[in-house]
Amino acid sequence: MKKFQFSISLLLLVPAFLFAQEIKLEDPIPTDPNVKIGKLSNGLTYYIRKNDKPEDKVDLRLVVNAGSILETDQQQGLAHFMEHMCFNGTKRFPKNQLVDYLQSIGVKFGQHLNAYTSFDETVYFLPIPADDKEKVEKGFQILEDWAFNTTLTPEEIDKERGVVLEEYRIGLGADKRMMGRFMPKMMYNSLYAKRLPIGQKEILENFTYDKLTSFYKDWYRPNLMAVIVVGDIDVAEMEMKIKEHFSKYKNPKNEKPRKMFDVPNHKETLVAIESDKESPYAQVQLLYKDYDEPKPIVTLLDFKKELTEGLFATMLNERLQELQNSPNPPFNFGYTYHGETFARTKEAFQSFAMVAQDKQLEALKVLVKENERVKQYGFTQAELERAKVDFLAQMERQYNERNKSESENFVWEYQGNFLTKEPIPGIEWTFETMKKILPMISLDDTNGLITRYLKDDNRVVVFTGPEKDGMIKPTEEQVLNAMKVDAKEVTAYTETEIASSLLRNSLKVGSIVSKTKNDKLGATILKLSNGATVTYKKTDFKNDEILFEAVSFGGSNLFSDEEIAKVSLAMGGITEAGFSGMSKNDINKFMTGKIARVNPYVGGTTEGFRGSSTPKDMEYLMQMVHAYFTDINFDKEAFNGFVSKQKGFMANLLSQPSMYFSNEFYTFLNQGNPRYKGFPSEADYDNADYALAYQKFKERFANAADFQFYFVGNFDENQLENFVNQYIASLPGDASKTETAIDLGYRMIKGDHKKIVNKGKDPKSTVNIMFYGETKYDTKEAFALKALGEVLTIKLIEELRENESGVYGISARASMNKIPYGSYNFSINFPCGPENAEKLVESSLRELNKIIANGPEQKDVDKFKESAKLEYKENLKVNNFWMSVLKKSYTDQENSEESLEFEDKLNALTAKEIQEVAKKYLSKDKVIGILMPEN
């Protein structure tokens, strides 16, 4: 479902009487009455909705129905440049005052405050606290200034050229070069091929100021705008603010028409075969473009058609996934769908595959053959029923969360409604209507789509991939021949028997031997008869979410150096074999309509599981855990399929300069560590010892008594405890054989070092400045060090981006660890121009040294505290946060109750304490890594 995208869960109830009568397909799709939609006399559209998730917050958004497609030849890149300028000086917020003010109320630049420009629209995001009327008023002032009062001074325009050019630089590389060559075919004879939003370097460097002001005046006008307000607000009050701030503005006289740009049809099959020495992946794209422009979804018949297309894509992708999981997979992954191309006005039936470098033609043949299989034989009734069950399960989950949806999700819905008339009927209407329409969709409906999708003209095939010595590129003739399928070679899809259970062995149910509660955390701790410990926290943050983790100390540090060399790569393929005698495809079919997942892992110092489920499907999560512990399959063919995909995926990654730099830099840092192998080769995968890895995996999960199990979410506590008795307490366990995290003693190199790596043809550099070492873990210092990273990031953005125009993005991050040994790590990272790399390293260290010498500025400390308070307030009602808190009590040996004292710790933190950790840890040796181009 390309228009609904299953995000309609965001919308609340509509009156139940709407469903009292039978479905009439000619009826219009209603609009959710919970959203206030209006239009000012000047044409500006607005959407307002009250929603208190999260509390005391409002999401403001300005949507401009204008993007790079509307630029003149002399304006290429200026739609995006205009987006940048809205943050660099407006009537009420000159120069950098806008970012400075928002940071002061806890809104982070880039993370919260942001924007994007595409071909057809420009959108500005502004989430702000709603607990203060003055802050909300300032938010509306900012939106108004973005829309109509950006100052566009020559001084600020020239300063921003450097930042935009740095963003342009980040996008350089193999993908951009190949895209520049295939877009004229993919978007044949269309302006979309010539209006990539980032624009042209020469224009960004040299455009005259009037070209930018002209774009702003022409396209930033009320009748092309929407203001969206969703949050913990009063709707009537927000409507008054919209009228107050936006009613007085008028559209320009003799306004330029906002034209839509088409993508002309073509009789031939256009083929683009592109390669590049820095391309890391081989890919195949196949498009059958529609003849006509898409029509908006207006009636229930349109809704039925969308559901039918969604079912079709689901069934075909299930088949592709089965091939992907086969012993000889034709691609690493592949998928197909019918939907929008780069242009709003052109949709296509599209297939995509990521493949090994020499398997592009084979993958294309498979994609075409699977389409032909559907054309000749259609889908089976069993496939259709599974797809319907999956659709309903996903929709039911969203329906169950209808009163717990975050405001941001609603905002995206309303943006789609404004820009492309996507319907917004409300989740109850959608869920109830889907239940009535799905039974009406037959195999004839889904099977009939393929004749509309497939055609011999208006097709495009795009191959992109690496260019290597001795590697022969496919020819256009070979590509066209690969699309010819001999109908006699195509057979009908064969259904396989679906398993009746995830478990095949009987269980010896255990018991809970003790139960204690931590009232401060709202957590319950269970000790089980097999020695395992379960900690759970029931929440109501989400109606249909249960998070699960399990962890035990041990990990691969318990393997010898010889063993780790043999099994490190093989470990990733253990789960490809499935469990309980079932293959991955068997498991996927069994899990149709059930929402539960579990992923085991073996890390350096721990092993464990991560997973989630709905309350309804929690038992399947438990069964998966039991199966991975006790009955994981050994399947050499499945492992070989994994190796084949990994080889195809990894073969050319080092051709990508950033990946090559990372490998060289960390190999340099880990010299002397026999366990560090860097980037794997094909030979490494060939030498991977699957049998030994399987043995080691089973050893790591042989003793449940050594595990801590965690559950957070909306479960029935009695039901959870019954499942714990049945599936976790029944696991083998020996409390006398618990393990601890082992420190092997290997460390990254000491001293003051600089490592310069030369790779790549583009003028791009990456800088990584690192401080690290051993220390005795201290909770207070760990907190101050993390704060230092946040405070320094604020200063680096201010100086290196806004004042020096040398970077697009930059960040400083810090951590301190206790396990397996006391250590700290602090890093500064940014991309930049090669000619500026050394200078910007000096600038970064200068800002750091200012903090070391004088302490951070109090205003920057206050900005950090304000954003940290807001994040903490939101986190308190997020399941992931509490899972992290509970788990860290074990993995980091921390007192979980300290999480409740966060605000006290934050308020007590001083600039002096931040200065002291900076002096203590960042006045020492450092390692600087710099990626430079080859020439």
Describe this structure in words.
The strands form 4 sheets. Strands 12-13-14-18-15-17-16 form a 7-stranded mixed beta sheet, with helices on both faces. Strands 1-2-6-3-5-4 form a 6-stranded mixed beta sheet, sandwiched between helices. The chain contains 30 helices and 23 strands. Helix content is 40%, strand content 18%. The two termini are 48 Å apart. β21 and β22 form a beta hairpin. It has 935 residues and is of the alpha+beta class. α25 packs across α26 and α25 crosses α30. The chain has 4 domains: 212 residues, 2-Layer Sandwich (Cytochrome Bc1 Complex, Chain A, domain 1), CATH 3.30.830.10; 219 residues, 2-Layer Sandwich (Cytochrome Bc1 Complex, Chain A, domain 1); 226 residues, 2-Layer Sandwich (Cytochrome Bc1 Complex, Chain A, domain 1), CATH 3.30.830; 180 residues, Cytochrome Bc1 Complex, Chain A, domain 1 (2-Layer Sandwich), CATH 3.30.830.10.
